[in-house]
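Hey, resending since the last one bounced:
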Amino acid sequence: MKLFSGKKPDLAKLPENILAVAFFLFLILTGYYSLKNYWDVRVSGVTETADGFSVENDFESNFNILLWHEDKYVEYYGLAAKLLGQPELNEVVKLKNGYLSGVEELVPEENLKRNADDLLALKQYLESRGSSLLYVQTPFKISKFDDQLPAGIADFSNQNIDTFMKYLAENGIATIDIRQTMYEEGMDQYDYFFRTDHHWTPEAGFYAYGKIADYVEENLGIPVDEQVKNLENYQIDNYEDWHLGTNGQRTGIYYGGIDDFHLISPAFDTQLINMDTQATGSYHEILIEDAVLKEESRAVYDIAYGNSIGHYFHNPNAANDARVLVVSDSMGKVVAPFLILSYQDVYTTGYDLTMEKIEEFAPDIVIYVTYPANIGGESFHVVQ
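The structure tokens again:
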């Protein structure tokens, strides 16, 4: 009886084969202990696991809850993908510079034109009541000028943006394209994004804020206190290895790493009022949710700066009496705080702006700060 086929093993594939076998054994072990945990719970009759999860009757729900080392499964899977040099995992692409990103499909031009036309209608309405409109386009993670994409992977985010910006220009809408301003100023766009997230960093938010403040002053004659516009007047606290973004959560730390997180806080006195809750306090007390900065967390961005969107703020220390209405998605969470510090009254909202709200708030200017994946969406432009 032959013990071997006579075919020599491919030594070049040996590490890959060993890794595949190890991962297969891990799957078997995971399945065994997951089923064992499930069986123990069902036989014992308990209704709650030691971790506090409620045990339901549905098998699939229970299995997901009781999955052995569920928190490590994604990590090991990501480690295997990294060792194999896999450029894509769970719909996340690892760019050549190591950054993790999604990719965007091509948006039909009629969707982009429809939204541009709706913004034109908003512009005309605002102008009829003495207000202005400014559209600010945030970059997608993948740079228009240096895509860093692995071979064979396509992304249409920047093509979508270019088409949309063309329609906005044809409609005479004032715009700031942050992709373009960063490029013209010699900035590496990737330096202003988290490696593991689709979001940009607080420093990027401050940069975009500066461009907005300059536009408002030049075109509306509304000045901002110079200390607010200068980053040197802020304290930047670094939380090392603290933030795991949306892309990193899909692939694990071993595959794409983990980010530091910066909190930018004024080093000068501030006083803000949340007019919705009547809470009064400093910038940090009103805008920052610091629980995620005191204990180890992962999805920090959305929580830490989350209080900045969805409220009406009054700033009695502002150097002007301007009223600014900001419409944004999560990319605006690190832009809005600095606008709130700059103008007397700032109302921030998502894509649920209504005519009633415009009439009630009476803004001097409405500013859209938009994530590229949302420019073709149905709810992007709605003004009832």
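Confidence is low (pLDDT under 50) at residues 1-14, 46-69.

Sorry for the duplicate.
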